[in-house]
Structure formats: C-alpha cells, structure tokens
Amino acid sequence: MVKFLAEKGADINLEDGYGYTPLIIAMKYRNIGLAKDIIDLKPDLNAICSATGDTPLTYLVREVWFGTDACYYMIKNGADVNKKNDNGDTPLIVAVENIVGSYGMLGVIINMGADYNIKNNDGKTAMDIVIEEDDKAALHHLNNPDTLEYYLTI
Known about the structure:
This protein is mainly alpha-helical. It contains 9 helices and no strands.
C-alpha cells in the first residue's frame, strides 16, 4: 500500500499534524516490515522529526527492541551514523544511553563508522556517558570495537 501511494505521488517525507513522518510512525507502532518498505522508497533518513526531535536512526536506536538488522539496513540505505538529533545526540550516544544489556546496536553503529569524538549539547561524548554510568561492558566495547564486529554479519 505504501509503495502504491508513493507511486501515486504521496510525499514519503511529509509529517502528519503531530509532526510524525511515515517512517517514524511505522517504528512507533513497531511495524518493522512497513518501516523497511518505507526505507526502500528512499525517504530522507537524516531529517529531524519535529514530534520527537530525533532522526529516524536515533529514534530506532532508542527503541532497542527493533534489533540490529533494522539499524544496519537503515545505515546501508543512507542514514548518517553521526547525524545529531535535537539534543545533539548521535546514534552512538543514544546507543550507550539505552544499552540495557544489549550491545548489538552499539556494535552496528561503531562498525559502520560512528565518530567517538562528537559531543552532544551537554558537551559529552559517548565515552563520557559510559564512564559516568560506570558501564564496564560498554567501556570495554568502546575501547575494543573489534569485539563487536560479528554484528555486521546479520
């Protein structure tokens, strides 16, 4: 249906009355199939959603249940792995703030070229946040990104 609407001229980047794009709506309702269909239509994967302040990638990384395949798919289709959201957070910063014991997103983002040195609006890098939170496992992975390489085999 989404492909049909796009073929008939629907704007795949148009926000609804609440500021959500079709891609963010698909992710909000956890419809991974629809999200991938929308990504295939080549929307602006680096636009800031006015409702959330997120890029599609920072939104996806925050919602860790999406899994690494969707993260990898979005980056391979043009999402900037270093694009900041309205808080100045990159996908890497969002990933370390939302790890919840799962390092898959972190692995994909790091291995797809995330810049460790980017600071958010609070002047903090991903490493600063990991050190503040005393997350020894995340600190290990940030210092040894090769331990996360297998996440690219998805």
